[in-house]
């Protein structure tokens, strides 16, 4: 007994006519009749009364019909569920990120797109430092992670893909000596009291600042570090020095804080980390969404650059 027989039986029960049922499901009438007889043989009871005026269901046929319909419905649901799972449309995604990237427009677009196109995927969020997220990926505790580069060396089991990049800005009290300047030169920050992130040396935002100031020979004083990047501007508002932050983070300054562009070509890069040979459907579906949005954002950025070329002195 198989679901083909169930489908044949339901078609005959609906039409109460072998010829119409055969035409409906696209099989030859003799083959349909044979399958119905085989089903009755397996059940050891007739399912139809065969009369001169036509056919009608027996009591056993009436009872069997309800369960046959339910079985076909469940089978169709199982097949659809399996198809959707294979396409990454249902399931779970364990998503890691560093807190500062939530302010990046491209990051938000990626999540919004995935939520819209995969509403039945359960997404769990894990905020942590870059090194912790790399470790979690290696230990299969999360599926993908979006962080700020640079990163420490990773195993070949992990691969990095670009997400976006941002210029840096300086957040300072409105009473600061540099607050009235339109653009801040890096050397103007020499010996300033700077707050940055609690990253290990050489990685993340702290790594970018260390490299930028170190290569330029600019002495700076990293006075404090915070685990959450958004807290840097809050500390500035409380009178704790200044902060060099990604442009997206500087768009929502606290009261009493002003933000000025940093006159530097140095940018902070946001990257996605994934398993090199990812085979699971949901993470692969997220990667497709991520790549599409990143490509769209890159084209938009290029078009904006053509419309608004930089001024040449």
TrEMBL record:
It holds the Pfam family HTH_1. NodD regulates the expression of the nodABCFE genes which encode other nodulation proteins. NodD is also a negative regulator of its own expression. Binds flavonoids as inducers. The gene is hcaR_1. This is Hca operon transcriptional activator. Belongs to the LysR transcriptional regulatory family. SUPFAM superfamilies: Periplasmic binding protein-like II, Winged helix' DNA-binding domain. The keyword Cell wall biogenesis/degradation does not apply. GO terms for molecular function: DNA binding; DNA-binding transcription factor activity. Residues 1-58 form the HTH lysR-type domain. One of its GO terms (cellular component) is protein-DNA complex. It comes from Variibacter gotjawalensis.
């Amino acid at each position: 007994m198989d679901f083909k027989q169930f489908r044949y039986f339901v078609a005959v029960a609906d039409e109460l006519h072998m010829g119409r049922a055969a035409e409906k499901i696209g099989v030859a009438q003799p083959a349909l009749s044979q399958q119905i007889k085989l089903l009755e043989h397996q059940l050891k009871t007739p399912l139809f009364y065969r009369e001169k005026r036509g056919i009608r269901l027996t009591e056993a046929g009436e009872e069997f019909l309800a369960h046959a319909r339910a079985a076909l419905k469940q089978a169709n649901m199982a097949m659809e569920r399996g198809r959707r799972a294979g396409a990454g449309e249902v399931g779970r995604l364990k998503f890691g990120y560093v807190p500062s990237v939530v302010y990046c427009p491209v990051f938000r677009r990626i999540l919004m797109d995935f939520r819209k196109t995969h509403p039945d995927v359960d997404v769990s969020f894990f905020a942590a430092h870059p090194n912790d997220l790399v470790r979690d990926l290696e230990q299969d505790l999360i599926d993908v992670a979006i962080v700020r580069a640079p990163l420490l060396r990773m195993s070949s089991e992990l691969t990095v893909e670009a997400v976006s990049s941002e210029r840096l800005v300086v957040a300072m009290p409105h009473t600061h000596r540099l607050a009235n300047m339109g653009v801040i030169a890096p050397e103007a920050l020499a010996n300033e009291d700077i707050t940055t992130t609690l990253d290990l040396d050489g990685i993340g935002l702290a790594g970018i600042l260390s490299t930028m100031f170190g290569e330029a020979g600019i002495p700076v004083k990293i006075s404090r570090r915070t685990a959450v990047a958004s807290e840097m501007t809050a500390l500035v508002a409380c009178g704790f020095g200044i902060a060099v932050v990604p442009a997206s983070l500087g768009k929502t300054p606290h009261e009493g804080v002003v933000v000025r562009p940093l006159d530097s070509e140095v940018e902070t890069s946001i990257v996605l980390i994934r398993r090199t040979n990812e085979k699971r459907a949901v993470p692969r579906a997220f990667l497709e969404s991520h790549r599409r949005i990143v490509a769209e954002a890159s084209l938009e950025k290029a078009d904006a650059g053509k419309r608004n070329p930089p001024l040449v002195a």
